[in-house]
Amino acid sequence: VEARIVEPLVDRFKSVVSRSDLTRAVWGGVAPGRNALDVHISRLRRRLELFGMQLRTVRSRGYLLEPS
Fold first, then answer.
1. Taking 90 as the threshold, does the pLDDT of residue 30 lie above it?
2. For the segment 34-54, what is each residue's pLDDT rounded down to a tens digit?
3. Are 14 and 64 in contact (CB under 8 A)?
4. Helix, strand or coil for residue 59?
5. Model-level pTM?
6. Which of these, 5, 7, 15, 66, is most buried using a 10 Å CB contact count?
7. How far apart are CA 61 and CA 33, in angstroms?
C-alpha cells in the first residue's frame, strides 16, 4: 500500500498531490475508511525520514514530498 502511495508523490516530486489522487492510486478511488490513508501516510513519513525526505501536509490540498 505504501509503495502505491509513494509512486504518485515521486512522479510529482515537490508538487502537491491530492488525497483523492492518492486514494485512487491505492484503492481505485474508494478508500476502506477515512483514516486508512492517514494511517499509511503516518507510517510512510517515518520511513521517508531515513532517506532525508519529508512528506508535508498542504492544508486543504494534499501532500508534498520534498527533501528534509
1. no
2. 789 999 999 999 999 999 999
3. yes
4. coil
5. 0.89
6. 5
7. 19
